[in-house]
Amino acid sequence: MSNQKMKIIKATNYQVEIGSILESSFSNVLSAFSGHKIIIIVDENTHDNCLDYLITSFNELARAEIVLLPTGEKNKVMEVCFQVWQALTEYNVSRKDLIINLGGGMVSDMGGFIATVYKRGLKFINVPTSLLGMVDAAIGGKNGIDLDGYKNQLGTFSHPSHIFIDPVFLATLPGEEIFNGYAEMLKHALIQDKDLWLKIQKIHSENDLIQLDVIYSSVLIKTKIIDKDPLEGGLRKILNFGHTIGHALEGYQLNKRQISHGHAVALGMCAEAHISMKRKFISLEEFRDIEATITASFPMVSIELDEVPEIISFMHQDKKNHSGKILCSLLKGIGSAVYDIEINEAEIGEALLHLNLLANNPN
């Protein structure tokens, strides 16, 4: 599955290569499209910090067309997709051509959506440049955009043929962006691998987070789950741990004070671990362990009592819900999770106010 220089994960419908992109099969993939167009989708950050490295490293990309997305979650919307589709039409892009998504989570989400909708589907590959993209957004075949402030309300299931994860791109990121991906790594460990939890909960530096073996372990957890349940009919739902409340906080904060996706997921995991503890799915000791690990790396956010109903209203729009019920994935001990658990507004409110307590009384 892997060697010293390049770690390779072969999933059912795609391949993940972790290590230097210069030593990967990236050039071979490009050669397969020698007679076809190549489109590279970037945002402003990756245009300025990553694109030149990729193009100068591979001669095949000298002829590529570049599509620039505006940076920021507020631009992850249909209007921007229309602009890109119009550009693809102007470039006379066909279904035989290739899209390369070079960027973080937003570029992977949007680029995959753009590729799978245009002409009923173009081939695409992901080259994630953020830790969040590497361990989460670029993997799994979920592509999507936001609608009216609600996260990923429009989307598709379609895998890129290849995902190339090269930590060299992480050197372009500030520390807070690295820890954005740390939240998803903690989630993978909490839902599936207690040994990994014990290892990565001790990490407090960016250098430790970007080691190949740590990234590989996290990616492997997600790919194994997705291989068993590619369309989220069951087991894959455990990957939503932290996201039911986390997405609501992220959407709500977009209108107030913006927080990153990783930060929102960290808050969501704290809140959903609180619900797990109250239901006696995990012990108080396990909850305190989770809480201490998360608060050591992510600041808590004040949530006032009068904000709780609006946050819950965001949760009622969650695509995981069924028959008007808010469904959630909860922990069943560290390293295990259950899905499709109905949670009520009272316990959600209590969990949110616990976050507020942590924000105002950190010790």
Computed CA radius of gyration, to the nearest angstrom? 20 Å
Q: Output the strand order for the largest sheet.
A: 4-3-5-6
- The topology string of helices and strands comes to EEHEHHEHEHEHEEEHHHHHHHHEEH
Largest sheet: 4 strands, parallel
Mean pLDDT: 94
Structural class: alpha/beta
Number of helical segments? 15
Helix content: 40-55%
Fold topology:
Elements (H helix, E strand, L loop, with lengths): L6 E4 L4 E4 L7 H6 L6 E6 H6 L1 H7 L7 E5 L8 H13 L7 E6 L1 H13 L5 E6 L2 H7 L4 E6 L2 E8 L4 E4 L9 H18 L1 H7 L5 H4 L2 H17 L14 H12 L6 H18 L5 H14 L10 H8 L11 E5 L5 E6 L2 H16 L3
Parallel strand pairs: 2-9, 3-4, 3-5, 5-6
Antiparallel strand pairs: 1-2, 7-8, 10-11
Helix pairs in contact: 5-6, 6-7, 6-10, 7-8, 7-10, 7-12, 11-12, 11-14, 12-13, 12-15
Structure commentary:
Helix 5 packs across helix 6 (131-137), helix 6 runs parallel beside helix 7 (175-192) and helix 11 crosses helix 12. The chain folds into two domains: 7-172, Rossmann fold (3-Layer(aba) Sandwich), CATH 3.40.50; 175-360, Up-down Bundle (Dehydroquinate synthase-like, alpha domain), CATH 1.20.1090. The protein is α/β, with parallel strands linked by helices. The strands form four sheets. It has a four-stranded parallel β-sheet. It has a three-stranded mixed β-sheet with strand order 1-2-9, with helices on one face. It has a two-stranded antiparallel ribbon with strand order 7-8. 46% of the residues lie in helices and 17% in strands.
